[in-house]
Amino acid sequence: MTYSAHQIAAEVIRYHKLPAPVWIEHYPKEATDGASETFELVVFSSYEIRERAPYLGARRLSIGEPTWKTLDRETVEALVGEVV
User: pTM of the predicted model, to two decimals?
Assistant: First the structure.
């Protein structure tokens, strides 16, 4: 999932007609070590949607390369404006 962030984000941005959304990946306790959850802010080098070469007959969308920054729950809640 993490290494598909640029493709998934491009599809979501196009479908929902979003300009440059705040993209946060959340990994619950069950997906990590079972004791802690993580939040990662994902920032893309570009939000311009471009089509990539077809894969297995389906076209693929992409945006710029992602970079990740670890966030705590309080910061995420401030960014999204509600309890998560």
Answer: 0.75
Q: What is the pLDDT along the chain (84 residues), one digit of tens a residue?
A: 556 888 888 989 889 998 878 889 998 988 888 888 999 999 999 988 998 776 677 778 889 989 999 999 999 999 889 998
Nearest to 73 by CA among 82, 64, 60, 61: 82
Which residue reads 């401030």 in tokens? 78
Distance, in Å, from the CA atom of 5 to the CA atom of 63, rounded to the nearest integer, reads 9
